[in-house]
Amino acid sequence: MTSTSNTKRRLLQQRLNEIVQHSGELLELSDLKALSVAIAEAAADAIKQDAVFAQKVCKHYKELANVTSPAPHTGMKGQNEGDDLVPIKAVAGHDVGIVAPLDPYFLQELYGDAQLPKALKRYTLKHLLEGAALVERKHPGTKPANKTKKDAVIAYIINYINA
Amino acid sequence: MDQFMAQVPVFEQLIAEPSLNAMLALSWQDFQKFIEYLFACAGYRVEDVSQLHFPNGPGVDLNIKAETGKVIGRVEVRRLILTTKVDVNDVSAFWGMLDVAGGKTGYLITTSDFTAPAKAFAATATTREKLWLIEGARLLRYISYVRSSRGKNAQGFRRIPHPTSPHWLFHADTWQAARAQQTTNHATICTVSNNKGGVAKTTTALNLGVVLAEMRQRSILLIDMDGQASLTFALPPPDPAPVPNLADYFAGYRKLQELITPTEFPGIHIIRAHPDLHAMDTGGIAKPESELRFVKDVQSIPNYDWIIIDTPPARTQYTRHALAAADQVIIPVVVETLAANGVNSMLNTYESMRALVGKPPALLGAIITRWKQNALMQTEKPTLVDALRSKSVHVFATSIPHDDNVDKAIRGTSLGSKKSLFTFRKNMGAAAVGYQNFVEEILPNDLNQ
């Protein structure tokens, strides 16, 4: 954790130094400490008056925050497993809720065979075992090779769901 | 409703999941019975007169009556395979029968369609607004509209308490066709809705508007349709003098455009709510005339890029009106056991209102709000996402994290501060970044406009 924080600080400081030095060359100003404060003050004024500039600042900030915070909890975008799953059809009679046990047949109908492994992988072992129980009921005498491993339970569901 | 007792489960299944093939699978007698049941659900008293041939009866299949018993329309049904269209001879014969039987409004209903000459016949000056040709596609829409617009009566029968004609679908189509031909730019009408409270509907409506106004330079009109008036409270008027509100519109003595008032935020106007809206609410039953009037009134508001409507957390008339008017519907959802439940009833209402206006919105999507990166939410999220997707609801990749700054920012604006969630503190909080990402997700191609 400490090592990550130090890396972040070094990266930001290095970037700041480069930008201030470059601005000093453009403006022909040599006191870089004073210049960095002057840039910050001018930018703060501009943020109040210019929404486009403010937007630009926010964009840069986000880029920097992403660089320095590998696992941010802010405004998550596109980082959820399964975001790229594409439903192949609407499925009637399935209410929205989070208390229903996992139904692999419903997932198969929603995503199709090709995407089913990926769809199942997002679920916990506990959920997968609920789903496997449904498959077991349709195929008495069968069961996952290992009920403590997600991969084994998923393999069992995939293997028997079309059997 | 005794005449339907044995068939109610079959008919209700058809109403729950209407399909032309399922109707064709009925015998012609049962199909006629189903239409009789449908009109009963739509608030009519229905009389089967198919055995009373002219001159002993009107020579049609059904008489539909007001609660008083007065005949207000006549119905003829044709259960036909989809390739066989009802022709002009059939239509003109029905029109002739209506004429000799006393000139009531007539509905000729088929599972298939009508030929072009038949449609032309029904569109003449003589027949227009008196003879309605309901083809299979409109029949499905009428069923969907009636389905979620009913309430139980004292006998436990789920029906609309007043006669609700299918002709409103035609009025909606005429208006939408006229709107499509207008050359002026329309505002994008975005309704934020979920029948469960506490899912950040108002926060989402407000901050969506603020991001679009402050960072995309869009002109925004917010409409607060919730009698709790939270959005109204969050954006007090710059001038403390009393301002008109939405209750004035629904009471009928103000036009919608007269209610637009400024806020402290440049580029954002608001139509305010008032607790009187609660008292005036007629609930989730059909009011097609009022619903379509609201659609027209909202769609006719000029000079805004976006109109964002915040809705109440319940199946109310205001939710129905807002969903009818929407080009886009955004559903804030929280990954919690009870919070997911409101989505189902909201989606039922949504389907009903889409059936009325006859066009799907450009976007129907859910955004996860008040997100916490904890094991419970991570575990339960796939179940919620898959259930939403099974209803054809897109789930946005962006989630809005739980963030105390949201409440602090709203407290500030409600006290007259001009600083939004995005500017009231030095560094933007998690929710502010989330809403920015959300706007980038729904408007990816115009970052610099």
Report a brief summary of the structure.
The complex is a heterodimer of chains A (163) and B (449). Helix content of chain A is 65%, strand content 0%.
The H-level CATH homologous superfamily of the largest domain in chain B, spelled out, is P-loop containing nucleotide triphosphate hydrolases
How much of the residues of chain B is beta strand, in percent? 15-25%
Q: What structural class should be given to the helix and strand makeup of chain A?
A: mainly alpha
What is the residue-mean pLDDT of chain A, rounded to a whole number?
80
Largest sheet of chain B: 8 strands, mixed
Q: Tell me the domain tally of chain B.
A: 2
> Can you give the helix content of chain B as a percent range?
40-55%
Q: Most extensive interface, residues per chain? A: A-B, 40 and 49 residues
**Main beta sheet of chain A:** none
Number of strands of chain B: 15
Give your account of this protein's structure.
The complex is a heterodimer of chains A (163) and B (449). Chain A is mostly helical and 163 residues long. Helix content of chain A is 65%, strand content 0%. Chain A is elongated and about 80 Å long. The two termini of chain A are 49 Å apart. Residues 68-74 of chain A have low confidence and may be disordered. Chain B folds into 2 domains: 2-147, Trna Endonuclease, Chain: A, domain 1 (3-Layer(aba) Sandwich); 179-442, P-loop containing nucleotide triphosphate hydrolases (Rossmann fold), CATH 3.40.50.300. In chain B, the strands form 3 sheets. In chain B, strands 10-11-9-12-8-13-14-15 form an 8-stranded mixed β-sheet, with helices on both faces. In chain B, strands 1-2-3-4-5 form a 5-stranded mixed β-sheet, sandwiched between helices. In chain B, strands 6-7 form a two-stranded antiparallel sheet. The mean pLDDT of chain B is 90.
